[in-house]
Amino acid sequence: xxxxxxxxxxxxxxxxxxxxxxxxxxxxxxxxxxxxxxxxxxxxxxxxxxxxxxxxxxxxxxxxxxxxxxxxxxxxxxxxxxxxxxxxxxxxxxxxxxxxxxxxxxxxxxxxxxxxxxxxxxxxxxxxxxxxxxxxxxxxxxxxxxx
Length: 147
Prior knowledge:
The chain is of the alpha+beta class and 147 residues long. The protein is built from two helices and six strands; from the N terminus they run ββαβββαβ.
């Protein structure tokens, strides 16, 4: 979902870009909630490391939210809001369940000039770079796949 809009009168760009990816992991039948939370925590921590000082193109990591239900106000942008959404655990190997957890990362950019579009593209690239640091999230998952 890319829903940013350019106001023709002011030249300001406002809106949101959604980046989706899927984290694949396995659990014992009775250990679902614990590992899922650890993975989400690892994602938030990694995304908070996105900074130009850390070798990224943006400082998107300065405003990372988890499951925020309201859009950031202009003074909070740019910002990143992360949601863990659907989970598919169709594969079962004895007591071991393989899960596919969908993650949505929303990049918010508001009140900027047309150059904000370039910022958003850099921010999305930074998200994928951060994922690529370790697609197992410190050994918690088997893999991470783009959606």
